[in-house]
Amino acid sequence: MTKTSHNFVCQACGAITNKWAGKCEACGQWNTIAEEAAREVTPKGLGTGKGRKIQFESMAGTTEQEPRIPVGIQEMDRMLGGGLVAGSAILIGGDPGIGKSTLLLQAVSALAKSGRKAAYISGEESIAQVRLRAIRLGLVQPGVELAAATNVRDIISSLDGMDAPDVAVIDSIQTMFLDNIEAAPGTVTQVRAASLELIKLAKRRGMVLFLVGHVTKDGQIAGPRVLEHMVDTVLYFEGERGHQFRILRAVKNRFGGTDEIGVFAMTDKGLEEVANPSALFLSQRHGQVSGAAVFAGMEGSRPILVEIQALVASSPLATPRRAVVGWDGARLAMILAVLETRCGVVIHDKEVYLNVAGGLRINEPAADLAVAAALLSALTNIPVMEHTVIFGEIGLSGEIRQVGRSDVRLRESEKLGFKASLTPVLSKSKLPIGNEGLHHVQELLSYFRSSKNLKASGMA
Question: pLDDT, tens digit, for every residue of 288-316?
Fold first, then answer.
């Protein structure tokens, strides 16, 4: 007999307890536990009945690979590994107002233009609101069907017909609900169950499913973590409200590479692709200034050059401030400790500000050497050598370690007019630009030792 019980579920991690508590013991979050009704269909497990035997196939068999569906947006196609895969589920998350809905509206419009049938289902806006945005952006296409709905049962009944679309967008998954679950939309139970039913439909019908997800204040997609495991691809849309640049980053992709990015610029006509992001990130860099270094990084298979800015100032506080934008704060603390311990740079009593220009977030340790150069430049008020790019990883003993794809980084630097580089020691054969290899971070000080303010800076 079916019975109903009540559980207390953490809305951040999905942990279930039998009583309410202010703090979730599983994830440590406060005020995230809410009471939900849970139906136990089989309270005593599977019982003694036997299940239906599943059919196994040899791995040595052959499977015909279906062709990819190109979106028509080159940055998106390249990041997805060449296009969309039929029957795949893609989760895209990002801050409110960052451009998720605009990007997907552009995507379904481009697909409809190429002859694909698309459905855009909004749980947050009316049909009139979505249509007005499409008109404003010039994206009106007859092959795109609009709907405003939140009941998953109704959505599946509508999409599971003979004229099912090739691509469906659910905006957003936090607004969807199943009417047989006694929980509010957006709760862990509803998000998990609604996603499962929609993904099952996409697999069965060979439909590409886009799920828009809200994010928490920490930048993670809201709802149960299992949601990211259920889908085939997870995309994060990043960017700062004050910058025009938007970064679409793939953190999971079963049908392509991860850590790839697509770069867009937000305009009054929607999101425009940026074919050469390095030139765009460096476009407002004028002349030589102290505290700035150009880092040659890699985002997936794409080399990107970006300016790292540092400012070092005296502090009246007992604990000087360290502010970081676009990089890991713990990594900055490590670089400061290495400079002070291994190089004798007195910096513990100074405030340090670090910024990655353009709104890009850097995750790779290859930026260590560029950050150290920017800090030393700011400390001595001496600019880094003109037309020089820098990259390399710094170890705790101060040694400078090799990083991957050095040749690709240097070739991209040559295209943008850079003529010199500071890197770990590289093979001298066929280097496209001048190179000085460094073994230890102390060798970086030779670029700044001629300063007349050296003693005052604390580097003597």
Answer: 789 999 999 998 788 999 999 999 999 88
CATH number at residue 296: 3.30.230.10
Rounded CA gap, 431 and 408, in Å? 10
3-state secondary structure 85-119: CCCCEEEEEECCCCCHHHHHHHHHHHHHHCCCCEE
CA dist 327 and 197 (Å) reads 38
Q: Which residues of 143-181 are buried (b: 16+ CB within 10 A; e: fewer)?
A: bbbbbeebebeebbebbeeeebbbbbbbbbbbbbbbeeb
301 assigned to some structural domain:
yes
Among 217, 252, 275, where does a domain finish? 275
pTM: predicted TM-score of the whole model, two decimal places: 0.76
3-state secondary structure of 310: strand
Evaluate whether residue 371 is within a structural domain: yes
409 and 428 belong to one structural domain: yes
Q: Over the range 306-323, which residues count as b (16 or more CB within 10 Å of their CB) and which as e?
A: bbbbbbbeeeeeeebeee
The C-alpha angle with vertex 430 and arms to 425 and 434, in degrees rounded to 5, equals 60
User: Could you give phi then psi for residue 74, rounded to 5 degrees?
Assistant: -60, -40
246 and 355, same domain (yes or no) = no
φ, ψ at 27 (rounded to 5°): -115, -10
Same domain, yes or no: 101 and 14: no
Q: Contact at 8 Å (CB) between 213 and 231?
A: no
Half-sphere exposure of 301 (CA within 13 A, CB side): 8
Pairing state between β 233-238 and 89-94? parallel
Residue 455 binned pLDDT confidence (cut-offs 50, 70, 90):
very low
Asked whether residue 53 is domain-assigned, the answer is no
Which residues contact residue 434 at a Cβ distance below 8 angstroms, ignoring those fewer than 6 apart? 419, 420, 421
Please, are residues 459 and 450 in contact by the beta-carbon 8 Å criterion? Answer: no
Q: Can you say whether the dihedral through the CA atoms of 168, 124, 151, 6 is positive or negative?
A: positive
Question: How big is the chain, counted in residues?
Answer: 460
Write out the two tokens for 221: 């997609």
Burial 440-460 (b: 16+ CB within 10 A, else e): ebeebbebbeeeeebeebbbe
Domains of the chain: total = 3
* 127 lies in the same domain as 187: yes
Task: Give the model's pLDDT for residue 452.
Answer: 36
CA 203-206-212 angle, to 5 degrees, is 70
Question: Do residue 97 and residue 243 come from a single domain?
Answer: yes
Least confident of 16-20, 165-169, 206-210, 240-244: 240-244
For residue 363, the enclosing domain spans 280-457
Give residue 220's pLDDT band: very low, low, confident or very high (50, 70, 90).
low
Mean of the pLDDT values across residues 332-354? 94
Whether the CB-CB separation of 143 and 92 falls below 8 Å is answered with no
